[in-house]
Amino acid sequence: MTRQTLFAANALLPDGWAENVRLEVDADGNLDQITRGAAVADATRLAGAVLPGMPNLHSHAFQRAMAGLAEHVAPGSSGDDSFWTWREVMYRFVGALTPEQVQAIAAQLYVEMLKAGYTAVGEFHYLHHGPDGSPYDDIAEMSRRTIAAAGTTGIGITQLPVLYGYGGFGAQKTGEGQRRFLNDPNHLLRIVEVLKDSHEDDPQVRIGLAPHSLRAVTLETLDEVVAGLTGLDPAAPIHLHIAEQVKEVEDCLAWSGRRPVEWLLENHAPDRRWCLIHATHMSEAETKGLAASGAVAGLCPTTEANLGDGLFPAVDFLAAGGAWGIGSDSHISVSPVEELRWFEYGERLARRKRNVLAGEGADASLGHRLYSDALAGGAQALGRPIGALQVGRRADLVVLDPAVPALSEMPVERLLDAMIFAGNRNPVRDVMVGGDWVVCEGSHRDERKVLEDYRAVLRTLLS
Fold first, then answer.
1. Residues paired with residue 430 on neighbouring β-strands, in sequence order
2. Catalytic center residues
3. % helix, strand, coil for the chain, step of 5
4. What proportion of the chain, given as a percentage, has pLDDT over 70?
């Protein structure tokens, strides 16, 4: 890449909206100078208001291809459908996926993310082995496939190989459907090590690690894998599913006498490196403890609604100063707008009030608070210099489409409110990731080929 100079009539900077902003991008894809109140001069004028690209902190890429396949009740069943019955559908679906198919599915998903305004993804990757559970010759084969999909489509990626060792609390035996996921700490850390060595100098790739859940590890394996990761990279991100379902809380209580977040806070104090995914069912003490820890709550409102998980204690967590970000998880929706909208709407429905999460101030912009908080939490969770139009960060930016009616003639201070709460048309026109324009005028540069490959995979999987 060569150096680029961009001009935005309005841009969302860390301290709020600014006018006539000149953004200078170096040849490595970093922002190295930002000037307010500038003239256009020789800069490229951008077509609309500019936002930092949104990080998507939680993804299971292969699940994009099964979205819509679990929205029915099987004939003869009791109709008592839940996360646990959905999980059985997922296990059957994942059973025969090949590395090539996983890459094609991930590429299609990442194109959709980019077109929606996500510029980075946290890939919580637990599909490691062949259909019979045997490792591939390259132990990191499946992780490499999602990283390759990110590279070809242009999205930044934090790859999080998952430690999955057990089928329930207290080191219960795993089931047949989980055999492709299983690793012990040594094998999982080997995957992390080879990926880290391969991508050490790539600013678009970050390697972390994800203990799947407290159901799938023990205190000993959790200690071992976190210590091993810290030895490889003391700042590497650590993600963990936790307290997503009531049954999970009940099972954890039966096993340990502690609720899941309570147990983690007591036994393995999470800090800013950690991202706790869902954390839906927390007591008041757990909510305050998680907020005080500095760890990010990874929220996926559309998936949590789809699976009937419940509502995150948002008001109390935000009041305690907790950090949070958004992910699309199972990808039944791929839209930061919808995730942010339903984060607020869940609170409105539960409390029968409006603008619940707006924060202090008589004229506070709810959209601005939601978008800005999710940027900061997402960047922290993914462990990359993203999430802000700021010198030293990656040049990940989204240009809004002024032709979208919901945004037309909207005062800039209300633009994010309109984007999130006024309509369903995609507001994104152009997207830059690391200085590279990957979406122009609403189209991704490779979307036709990526879609052809994806459709071929679906024909095979659904035949």
1. 399
2. 278, 329
3. 40, 20, 40
4. 96
